[in-house]
Amino acid sequence: MDIDILSLLKKRRSIRKYKGVKVEQEKIDQIVEAALLSPSSHANYPWRFIVVEDNNTLSKLSLSKIHGANFLSDSPLAIVVTADQNQSDVWIEDASIAATHIMLTAHSLDLGSCWVQIRKRMATNTETSEEYIKKLLNIPENINVLSIIAIGYPDEKKEPRNKSQLLYKSVFHKRFGKHYK
Predict the structure, then answer these.
(1) Where does the pLDDT of residue 1 fall: very low under 50, low under 70, confident under 90, or very high at 90 and above?
(2) Which SS3 state, helix, strand or coil, does residue 154 take?
(3) 115, β-bridge pairs
(4) For a Cys staple, 18 with which of 60, 97, 105, 152, CB 3.0–4.6 Å?
């Protein structure tokens, strides 16, 4: 199956509402494979992934941030994206690339997804989101939590982004000495 990557990128949107339908194991396997195909600096592959399908655990993960994670309780699937900080000094970048692979692959499989930022966020006024998740999932100290990717069959429709919405003013073309468009 040929995939037009630009078309996929235009159509992929953050989905926060999911149908109460379990994601098939074959689709989960494809998403995990895509994550494992992610490149990393010096081929260190510091990322680790925790696949969560248990409703009770998903509900607890929805409490991992003061704001912006509550929809996890209605998600049938989440992948916690982590990385070993001792394995790579660019673990954030490597794990971010893997998270992007997860979201794009989910979209290619007619699933919705949404990134839940964990790194540098708070679960309560005194506990970081990362501390909360490490306790909940028994994650070792040397493993850092970057994000959680919620995944499921979309129960909301969002229009694809079009060219007029793109921030071309953020692109400077060095050869022509001006902004891209």
Answers:
(1) low
(2) strand
(3) 149
(4) 152
Which tokens hold the place of 175?
């050869």
The predicted-structure confidence for 26-75, as pLDDT tens digits, reads as follows 999 999 999 999 999 999 999 999 999 999 999 999 999 999 999 999 99
Q: How far apart are CA 7 and CA 131, in angstroms?
A: 38
Residue 131 to residue 139: CA distance in whole angstroms: 9
Query: Where would I find the H helices in the chain?
Result: 5-11, 25-36, 55-61, 91-108, 129-137
Chain centroid to CA 16: 12
DSSP label at residue 93: H
Distance of alpha carbon 104 from alpha carbon 24, whole angstroms: 17
Measured CA distances, 68 to 50, 71, 73, 116, 172 (Å): 20, 8, 12, 7, 33
In angstroms, rounded to a whole number, what is the distance separating the alpha carbons of residues 61 and 167?
33
In the chain the domains, ranked by start, together with CATH numbers, are 5-179 (3.40.109.10)
SS3 for 124? coil
130-139: burial string, b at 16+ Cβ within 10 Å, e else: bbbbbebbeb
